[in-house]
Automatic annotation (TrEMBL):
Source taxon at top rank: Bacteria
Membrane protein topology class: Multi-pass membrane protein
Organism: Anaerostipes amylophilus
Transmembrane segments: 12-36, 48-67, 88-107, 140-165, 177-195, 215-234, 255-276, 296-314, 326-349, 361-386
Protein name, entry field: Chloride channel protein
Signal sequence coordinates: none
Sorted UniProt keywords: Membrane, Transmembrane, Transmembrane helix
Length: 398
């Protein structure tokens, strides 16, 4: 390809990225604002809603079976499209995953939201790429869509860009996708914010001096523990999903029956403290409220169980809450500022569980500012190395 043709093609992708960003950002705003309203309603009325979690699970599964059974694959379907194992991602996936996630959160399941946003972005961008017969559609258009989905929901376009690139291509940075992905992520973030979706950010005043041996050792320990936590999450989720699929092959029976003990436990343990996204734990960690020493492990277990039996949502926001609550506890143990350790955990556990390196560092920059960037680089790099190659996206990497 000559230089002129390359520039023309890049311009086409840039224009398409802006279009995708506007559409996905608008959908993210709708999805995110409804989800926040649902979460607030559930927090107040959980005692009336949690008992119906098994019924909600049956409704979600029936919905998929009635309208698009293939969409049950979720993120796996996205990666299959990128690997050209499937021709198209059903557009029905978008409303199904949105409604399914709303129901999961309304009735108290422990799940995230980024999986929905990423699937929305990937589905739309893939469909547009097929419509206009873009070359390299399966890979590049998926990166554009995933960056838009993540960026529009969390309004962290830099981390969204690198998240999409790192998740979809193994062992290398796909620089060809960088500019279009940045365009789609920034456009989606601007669009969703303009439509009333707020960004989460924390003014981080705490810092530490890395000149002392004791402090350096503590920071290294933080990276190792956060890395092991992310590895535990991704390993356990993969194994439990496989176990549930083998032992209870009927999806209706699996979600309907197993949601009964899930609802009972969520109700009994601190009155739905571990339901939903986990933003209550994140807020507690950064405002000096009570964080229990077991918050991180219970949120981890409840999220894994909720997703393994078939409820809809994502993993990233629960990972943020797991890292935050664990960081607060470790800060006290190591004599470091708890809020700073919470911020490091917020980024590093996410990075470990998703098997990404640059994305969590960018999360640190965009959510907590640049004052502690050296710490974020060190801790996230150690966590990434400790994890190895495990990821919550079992079908990832093209």
């Amino acid at each position: 390809m000559d230089k002129k043709s390359y520039i023309l093609q890049l311009l086409k992708y840039f224009v398409m990225a802006v279009i995708v960003g506007i559409i996905v950002g608008a959908i993210d705003a709708l999805f995110g604002r409804v989800l926040i309203a649902i979460s607030d309603f559930r927090t107040i009325h959980y005692q009336y809603l949690l008992p119906f979690l098994p019924i909600a699970g049956l409704v979600i599964t029936a919905m998929y079976y009635a309208f698009s059974k293939a969409s049950l694959k979720g993120m796996k379907l996205v990666f299959e499209a990128g690997q050209q194992k499937t021709d198209a991602i059903p557009l029905l996936l978008i409303p199904l995953v949105m409604i399914g996630t709303w129901l999961t959160h309304l009735f108290g399941g422990s799940a995230g939201r980024e999986g929905v946003a990423v699937q929305i972005g990937a589905t739309l961008s893939h469909a547009i790429g097929r419509k206009f017969k873009f070359p390299e559609n399966g890979r590049l258009m998926l990166v554009i869509g995933m960056a838009a989905g993540f960026g529009g929901l969390f309004q962290t376009p830099l981390s969204a860009t690198f998240f999409a690139i790192e998740v979809i291509v193994i062992g290398k940075m796909d620089y060809e996708a960088l500019l279009p992905a940045l365009a789609s992520a920034y456009t989606a973030a601007f669009t969703s914010h303009s439509l009333g979706l707020e960004k989460f950010s924390v003014v981080m005043k705490d810092t530490v001096n890395l000149s002392g041996t004791k402090t350096i050792a503590a920071v290294i320990c933080l990276g190792i523990i956060f890395g092991l936590t992310g590895r535990l999450f991704s390993f356990s989720l993969s194994k439990l999903k496989a176990f549930m699929g083998e032992k209870i092959m009927n999806q209706f029976l699996r979600i309907g029956f197993m949601a009964i003990p899930l609802a009972v436990l969520l109700f009994a343990v601190h009155g739905s403290r571990y339901s939903g996204l986990g933003t209550n734990l994140i807020s507690a960690g950064f405002t000096g409220q009570t964080i229990y020493g077991y918050d991180w492990i219970l949120k981890l277990l409840f999220t894994i169980f909720t997703l393994a039996i078939g409820f809809q949502g994502g993993e990233v926001t629960p990972l943020f809450s797991i890292g935050t609550s664990l960081g607060v506890i470790l800060g006290g143990l190591f004599g470091l500022p708890p809020m700073l350790c919470a911020a490091l955990g917020y980024a590093a556990v996410f990075g470990s569980a998703t098997n990404t390196l640059i994305a969590p560092i960018m999360i640190g920059l965009e959510v907590f500012g640049g004052a502690n960037m050296v710490l974020f680089v060190i801790v996230c790099a150690i966590a990434y190395g400790v994890n190895g190659d495990l990821s919550i996206y079992a079908q990832e990497k093209l």
